[in-house]
Amino acid sequence: MKFSSVFLTLSATVASAQYSGDIVQYWVDQSGLLSNNSLIGGLQSPPSGWFEAVVQAAIYVAALESKNESLAFQQLAVTHAAHDSLTWTFHGTRNFGNLFKSAQDIVAAINISESDDRYWRAAAIGRRAAVRVTNARQDDKLNNFVNYVYRPAIPGVYQRTPGSPFVAPDTPQARYLRTFGGIGNVTKFRAPPPPSVNSTEYEAILNYVKSVGDRNSTVRTPNNTETAYFWRESSPIQWNRFAHNVIGNKFAKDVQSSAKFYAQLNYAHANAAIAGWDSKAYYNSWRPVTAIRRTDIWLPSKRNVSNPTWTPLLDPTPNHQEYISTHATFGGAAAAVITAWNGGKDEINIVQSTNGTGAGLGVLSRRYTSIKQAVKDNGDSRVYGGIHFQFSSDVGSVVGGQIGRATLEAFDKNWDKF
Fold it and tell me: What's the pTM?
């Protein structure tokens, strides 16, 4: 009898097993791995924000529809929503094996048997959620051909990135993507005009990036160099991990709250990417590498001589227009959402790590006690890397903050405007 009681107790424990971590964070991380490891060599900025918003929307739908079920049931519903929406995104990149392994591992940890009716009820909820969201984004304009012809090489106008094999900037169609969460027409977030290339103000800004962003700079500090590499990783991946560190494991048993947080964060990322591309296309501004290699033509002082061999620290330069920095826009948008979920406080105490430096430096770690400081470092990193002007990063962070706050404000009423 004693043995039977123990056996029954163990059986009940196994039957109620569930994943011990935050299921939404798990799928955020798996999504990031896929976007970096796909056979296409990663994703450009707008798709990197867009696809994660699609996945998180599906997860949020599944979380809402399973909220009255057990924690393990909710985790399983979310898993199917994530798997199916990720498969929809990456079906052309031979990532089926990676997706299968991610799902198989977490299903084993959730531990609801396929012989249990709950498994198939949860799967049905997740599958419906994925279909609902991906169907809503089918006519998303991301597949559309949008022509781009380089304009004459006059001062200030974007030109083909040196060494680039591409005949157009990355994804010119991305500026027309539909925003997430009902924030409205993205053009209302268009950045103000950049400084005139004929101004003394512009000359000072250009001289700064020329000195601090040079690959062999003698004025860039070791900390600045590390900042350039630390924040080089794909912004949505880096800021999602930043969010993990701030939020921690507090929503591991509250799937709905976790799903809402990451939906808001990744809606903001997607909206920031679309807005960034709108400003880039509208202003069509040249990058520092183009300007520095022909400064003698137009600088007011005539004292600055062009350097036809100047190379930025972060080379190759991204293949799209300079103004505004979408990297900075991602950061400003993420910070707005994270701050709101941090009780409106800027103060944090986290250790952030990155291994996406692209420089063979291994894992770099930094302690952050301020969200605003992280935003500042994120934006400045592109200047230290020589691929953005300071005004582009500064304005990008501001625009991103506006988008993040707008996403938060609209979310509860318009979250299902995928």
Answer: 0.93
